[in-house]
Write a structure and sequence with these properties.
The chain is α+β, with helices and mostly antiparallel strands. It has one domain: 2-Layer Sandwich (Ribosomal Protein S5, domain 2), CATH 3.30.230.10. It is about 40% helix and about 20% strand. The chain has a 3-stranded mixed beta sheet with strand order 1-3-2, covered by helices on one side.
């Protein structure tokens, strides 16, 4: 899930995972995976504030599926160029 607020300047980004996902180890792993994807695609994104929320399906996904879903979410928000 993505929340986006456009503004001029640089990227501001936050990653969150609720306790519904599991213990701290699982929540931190989910945030690390999202951070890695954001770093990979950040040069292609519009300036603004981004907040990514981890969902349960994140753990069962392969890297390719997760990357496709990540790009899909960014395109739906019209932030991916």
């Amino acid at each position: 899930m993505l929340f986006y607020l456009p503004h001029n300047g640089t990227h501001k980004v936050g990653f969150t995972a609720t306790k519904k996902l599991g213990n701290a180890v699982k929540r931190n792993r989910a945030k690390r995976r999202m951070r890695a994807l954001f770093r990979e695609h950040s040069p292609k994104l519009k300036d603004g504030s981004y907040v990514f929320v981890a969902k349960v399906g994140l753990f069962d996904s392969t890297h390719e599926k997760l990357q496709n879903d990540f790009i899909k979410v960014l395109r739906n928000a019209k932030t991916f160029t």
